[in-house]
Amino acid sequence: MKLNILHIALNAFACVGLVQSALAAYPEKAVKLIVAQTPGGAADIMGRMIAQKLSQRWGQPVIVENRAGAGGNIGSEAVAKSPNDGYTLLMSSDGPMAINGSLYKSLPFDLQRDFTPIASIATFSFVLLVNNNVAAKTFPEFVKLAQGKPEMTLGNAGNGSTNHLVGEVIKSSAKIKMTNVPYRGAAEAMTDLLGGRIDAMISSVPAGATRVDDGSLRALVVSTEKRATRIPNVPTMVESGFPHDVSPSWFGLFAPANLSTDIVRKIHADVSVILKESDMKERMAAQGLEPFENSRERFDELWRTTIRKWGVVVKETGAEIN
């Protein structure tokens, strides 16, 4: 009997040792970080900053791979169907990871079943940008202009993107009609806005702030309750006389479903340390991003709450992907 108990105990210690050894070794090779957005967009900017920091911390390459298209579904699907070994991660926002479940009639994955939420990364606002050919200098002036010119065009980063839904909220609040022009990504929309081929666009603050700084585009209003620290002179919807705002969007890190709890904890702990580093805070602030360090449990709760929130917005605005 004593021998059996000893044998069981030794096996238990051996198993614990193996788990600890595997965790200590992770990652043993390059990690792929998929960004479901084109290069140059806010998710890409954030993904590359995190990838660089994790590479330094882990002593292994963290390779960013852009898988854009279908409102972020292509990149999301690639991760959902990858091995759940910690070597394929997803940097995404509340667009693909919350809106798409309500906006698309069918998805090649289940949002709440096929992913492991790991860590919240950052929050950010959206801003309405216009090219310098548009006469309006303020959002109320823009509303009057749009009311008289329903053929005005409003670009976004793609049907079903957060940019698209924020645009729908702004149009609904201001009671204006504009022609939506969806692009494959924010960078393509920005190019056409700069070239005067569209009148306006909804951009994330990280992607649009530089163009506001150099005067090539004008920012008329931000979507959130508070002003964006990166462009503090731009008023909110409420300040502009339109009582509607959108909660800040977020970036988060995800993996395929059923990722080892130990690996999840390791990645979350390392990301939490990175978000507290002074140089990371400075780099994020320069891009208009606010660090959003949180417990994994609270991020999971936020993610599922956001899915429900955007479901209501999709229903109220009648937003469609076509």
Describe the protein in words.
The structure is a single chain. By secondary structure, the chain is an alpha/beta fold. The protein contains 11 helices and 11 strands. It has a 6-stranded mixed β-sheet with strand order 2-1-3-10-4-11, with helices on both faces. Strands 7-6-8-5-9 form a 5-stranded mixed β-sheet. Helix 6 links the parallel strand 6 and strand 7. The radius of gyration is 22 Å and the shape is globular. About 2% of the residues have low confidence.
List the helices and strands and how they pair.
Elements: H1 2-25, E1 31-35, H2 42-58, E2 62-66, H3 73-80, E3 88-93, H4 94-103, E4 115-124, E5 126-131, H5 139-148, E6 153-156, H6 162-174, E7 179-182, H7 186-194, E8 200-204, H8 205-213, E9 217-222, E10 249-256, H9 261-276, H10 278-287, E11 290-291, H11 296-317
Parallel strand pairs: 1-2, 1-3, 6-7, 6-8
Antiparallel strand pairs: 3-10, 4-10, 4-11, 5-8, 5-9
Helix pairs in contact: 4-11
